[in-house]
Specification:
heterodimer; A: about 250 residues; 9 helices; B: about 725 residues; alpha+beta; 5-stranded mixed beta sheet; 18 helices; about 55% helix; flat
Chain lengths: ~250, ~725
């Protein structure tokens, strides 16, 4: 269970990205985070694994205070939290297999990984997750040689290497065309349903929210403005979330 | 509203133009731009001379033979009053006779186009005398005409006006044998005895005390001499004979000098002038054992014309030195810059922060660790003492130390990551001892082995030489290495202590601890800086170099502690970043040409000084270029790898390094290119390489020689440019 309590993030330039955000995410849920660009979705996700340091508030994960963890402990926490990014964030000049193996770094002896050495079990696991995202034959290609959809699947494979208990997905399909978007979302859905991994996914399109998530929270200007079922977002709530000039399409 | 703004803009434009005019006026004046100098006749003549010299690099040498055309001439005219022009072989003198100091016209035709030569007067004299009258250059048709003054040499006998044109001997398709004629008496030196004796150099011999037997054309020993004590030859042509002291022999043809040079022996043979000794031989003996080393003919010093000039040979040698200089400088600079580039990258350093206690303990730990490492190595050397000079001890050190290092490193690599601080520290200390023992033995072996093998490798003695140098440098650097290891051990200990304190102390107590350690840390840093200043400016006042810096350091430490306490963390990374950047920028702004002056004082004139100066500059420049590359990488992959729970170092290896390899290679090539170019001029300041030759020749005014060096530089730089750009294309 992930508990976010009164989370506030003020960037050094004074921008208030999150303001007193609180919610509880039970294990096994697929929760969507919606909101306009700049509403704080990315910051929220990054606060959870402390890629961004929260200014105030607490994040409790299985009762452990993530916000108070020291360097070593934070590494141990991070390695159980998978993350998928809008721009895939692959190392373009590395091979697909290296990118996937990087997901295992949190479990690897730091000194050994300097020499680019991974245990055989890790290598086997890498092939298994690549097989799951249907990219085994691409394992020796450079990441830059792959298409957008393929790159995002490598991103998912990298996160799967971590044996995650929770998966953070930051606009995973915003850079992809709609057909590919569904393929990626289905992978996330399978991870949620088949592996029982909790998923916290920020999304742009409401139809994707309706289709895949079983709960949605909405941010507007860094404040939590909605927390409930996706189906309950009616026209009025829509305007609260996306502003009063917004038109609902689809 | 718009009007005043527009007029103000106009005013600015006018002001701008006026300022520009003033600035450029000053610039022209200060630079001393002067058309008078450019148009001056004498400057132009000189310029033309130099440009023409530069256009004809002295790549090959020709031997010359003088072609003479002699015209008979009377000073004064004889009674018959005939002063009709006299002509011989195309040279006409008008009038055909004249009074002393009268002006006559010398005309010539049928010479080579543009041939250069001189006109001499050979007076009627019992000695060989030539008086210079003038120099000429024929035009495109081989004509010349010159008005010259006759010398004051009246005689009733015919005298001679000589037109002399030096002609090159040989062509590249038809090279001619020439004898060396060093004293220009027209007599072949090699093989024919001349006045003052004949100098013969026997190459490729090295003995400390030589003896020499002179053998005539029938291989009879004419004499056997030595510079040292008398010996009896045990073999060779002089077997059984006893040496005479040099210079006391009574034979007609005798050795008067026997000088040992680095790889040759110089022998001077004297005797009646004109004697042909070209089929004579000299046998060189080892002057203490009486063994023969080799024999050499005296008359085989024949050279060919034309031949590659000395200047070309020297230049080739020096340009190779120069390229090696650049290679060494680039390699050293590169290896220093690689690790430093990461701490000079803002994006990597901006998140590096520590707590007040961490910083304070760290400041205390680093000097303590360095002291620990240095103390350990002194202790080790004290205990080992002279034992290190025994090869057996060295082998044992290398074997045992190496094995221990291997086992410990295996432990560190494969052992479980959670261990108590005590175990970790003990393991690290043991590694330090094992490594330094192994290295001590290894470096000693390398030094000795390298030196011992250099004889056996002959011409390739530079291969063992490299190992000997590595051994020597290693021995010198070992204390630095143990200092570094010591610092990292104590720092690791300090950071764990700091972490523990931060967790377990209550907030109030934590603040107090922070103040105390920061005050101590500040004081230590202050004292170290004070000591450095005291050393630099030779201040022997402990108040100024100890007490005051300690107090200032303490106060500064307390200030930082207070600031850190309020903010909760100290951005140590940015501080390191700014310090590193400042050092790089300072070093980069000093030209290697200037740096070399300092290094010349330290290590003496030559390529080594140049290489060190260039290496320092390279390190600073590459570190800056590299770190800018690190700053420009895409942050996404770093974020992603960090999110997997990777350590900072793992993040760098997996997310940063793959992104920077191509630009790093490209910049290194580019820098190697720059270094080759720079190394060509380092010699101007004493840094060795081809610049030294170039500067020497320019100062001597030998522009044809200088041109050879310029040509060599151009060729090397252009080909470097080409290869490095081709290679860079492949990597980027």
């Amino acid at each position: 269970m992930l508990q976010v309590e009164h989370l506030t993030k003020v960037y050094e330039n004074g921008t208030v990205a999150l303001e007193d955000v609180s919610f509880t995410l039970p294990d096994g849920q697929f929760m969507a985070v919606i909101g306009l660009s700049g509403s704080g979705k990315s910051t929220l996700l990054r606060c959870i694994n402390r890629l961004v340091e929260p200014t105030e508030g607490r994040i409790l994960w299985h009762g452990i205070d993530v916000t108070a963890a020291g360097q070593e402990e934070l590494r141990r926490i991070r390695r159980r939290i998978g993350m998928v990014f809008q721009h895939f964030n692959l190392v373009n000049r590395s091979k697909v297999s290296t990118n996937v193996l990087a997901g295992r770094l949190g479990y690897t002896n730091p000194a050994l990984s300097m020499l680019n050495h991974f245990e055989q079990a890790d290598r086997d696991k890498a092939m298994k997750v690549l097989d799951r995202v249907e990219l085994v034959e691409k394992s020796d290609s450079l990441a830059s040689e792959l298409s957008g959809g393929q790159q995002q699947r490598v991103g998912i494979a990298r996160a799967l290497m971590q044996d995650p208990e929770i998966m953070l997905a930051d606009e995973p399909v915003a850079s992809l065309d709609p057909v590919l978007a569904h393929s990626i979302m289905q992978h996330l859905e399978s991870i949620n349903k088949d592996d029982g991994v909790t998923v916290l996914c920020s999304l742009h399109f409401l139809d994707l929210v309706h289709r895949y998530s079983n709960r949605a929270i909405a941010l507007f200007d860094g404040k939590l403005v909605y927390d409930g079922l996706p189906a309950d977002i009616d026209d009025e709530r829509f305007k609260d979330i996306y502003g009063h000039e917004a038109e609902r399409i689809g | 509203m718009a009007e005043p703004r527009r007029s103000r803009r106009r005013l600015y434009i006018v002001l701008g133009i006026v300022t520009a005019i003033v600035i450029y006026g000053l610039a022209v004046e200060r630079t001393g731009v002067s058309l008078d100098e450019i148009t001056s006749e004498s400057r132009q003549t000189q310029l033309v001379r130099i440009i023409r010299a530069l256009a004809r690099p002295e790549l090959v040498t020709y031997d010359f033979e003088n072609a003479n055309t002699d015209v008979e001439f009377f000073i004064p005219c004889q009674e018959d009053g005939n002063d009709r022009p006299t002509t011989t072989d195309g040279v006409t003198v008008t009038p055909g006779c004249g009074e002393p100091e009268q002006i006559v016209t010398v005309q010539g035709s049928r010479f080579e186009p543009f041939a250069e030569g001189r006109i001499q007067f050979i007076p009627d004299s019992e000695f060989e005398v030539t008086l210079p009258m003038g120099l000429f250059q024929a035009d495109g048709n081989g004509h010349f005409s010159l008005d010259l003054e006759l010398p004051d040499r009246p005689s009733n006998n015919p005298q001679i006006i000589r037109v002399q044109v030096p002609q090159r001997l040989g062509t590249w398709t038809n090279r001619e044998e020439v004898w060396t004629d060093t004293n220009e008496n027209g007599v072949i030196d090699a093989g024919i005895l001349i006045e003052g004796g004949l100098e013969v150099t026997v190459e490729g011999v090295h003995v400390d005390t030589p003896a020499a037997a002179l053998l005539d054309a029938t291989a009879q020993v004419a004499e056997f001499v030595t510079t040292g004590d008398p010996i009896i030859a045990v073999d060779g042509p002089a077997r059984g004979l006893t040496t005479d002291p040099i210079g006391e022999s009574h034979s007609e043809i005798t050795i008067t000098e026997l000088t040992v040079q680095t790889t040759s022996i110089l022998i001077r043979i004297e005797g009646p002038e004109g004697t042909d000794i070209s089929r004579w031989r000299v046998a060189i003996y080892e002057g203490t054992t009486g063994e023969v080393i080799g024999t050499s003919f005296l008359g085989d010093q024949i050279e060919l014309s034309p031949r590659v000039s000395e200047q070309t040979k020297l230049t080739t040698e020096k340009i190779i030195d120069t390229v090696f200089l650049a290679l060494l400088a680039t390699t050293i600079g590169l290896s220093v810059a690689l690790p430093l580039s990461f701490i000079a990258a803002r994006n990597l350093m901006k998140d590096v922060s520590t707590t007040v206690i961490g910083l304070g303990l760290g400041l205390l730990a680093i000097p303590a660790g360095v002291a620990l490492g240095a103390a350990y190595i002194s202790l080790q050397r004290l205990i080992l003492g002279d034992l290190i000079n025994q090869n057996l001890v060295r082998f044992i050190l290398v074997a045992l130390g190496g094995l221990a290092t291997f086992l410990l490193v295996r432990q560190i690599f494969l052992g479980s990551e959670t261990r108590s601080t005590l175990v970790r520290t003990a393991r690290a200390l043991a590694s330090m001892i094992a490594v330094s023992l192994a290295l001590e033995g290894l470096f000693a072996l390398l030094t000795q082995g390298g030196n011992a093998l250099s004889e056996a490798f002959g011409v390739f003695d530079f291969v063992p030489g490299l190992f000997a140098t590595i051994g020597e440098v290693g021995t010198v650097l070992l204390p630095f290495l143990t200092g570094l290891i010591g610092a990292s051990i104590v720092l690791g200990l300090a950071s764990r202590t700091a972490f523990w304190l931060n967790i377990h102390e209550r907030a109030g107590l934590r603040a107090v601890t922070g103040f105390v350690v920061m005050a101590l840390g500040g004081a230590v840093v202050g004292i170290l800086i004070g000591a450095a200043i005291g050393w630099l400016y030779q201040i022997a006042n402990p108040l100024a170099t100890f007490v005051v810096p300690a107090i200032f350091g303490t106060l500064f430490g307390l200030f930082i502690a207070e600031r850190g306490r309020r903010r909760g963390e100290i951005k140590i990374g940015l501080t390191v970043y700014y310090i590193a950047r400042t050092i790089f920028n300072t070093l980069r702004s000093i030209e290697p040409l200037v740096m070399v002056i300092v290094f010349v004082v330290w290590v003496g004139f030559g390529e080594f000084a140049g290489a060190l100066a260039l290496a320092l500059h390279t390190a600073a420049s590459l570190a800056k270029l590299y770190s800018e590359q690190v700053e420009s990488i895409s942050e996404g992959p770093m974020e992603a790898v960090r999110a997997t729970g990777a350590t900072r170092l793992q993040t760098i290896i997996y997310a940063v390094v793959p992104q920077i390899v191509p630009p790093y290679i490209s910049f290194t090539m580019y820098r190697w290119d720059i270094n080759v170019r720079m190394s060509t001029i380092l010699g101007f300041a004493g840094g060795g390489g081809i610049g030294f030759l170039l500067q020497q020749n320019i100062q001597l005014g030998d522009y044809r020689a200088a041109s050879v060096q310029m040509l060599a530089i151009a060729i090397v730089v252009a080909s470097m440019d080409y290869t490095s750009s081709k290679l860079r294309e492949r990597f980027v």
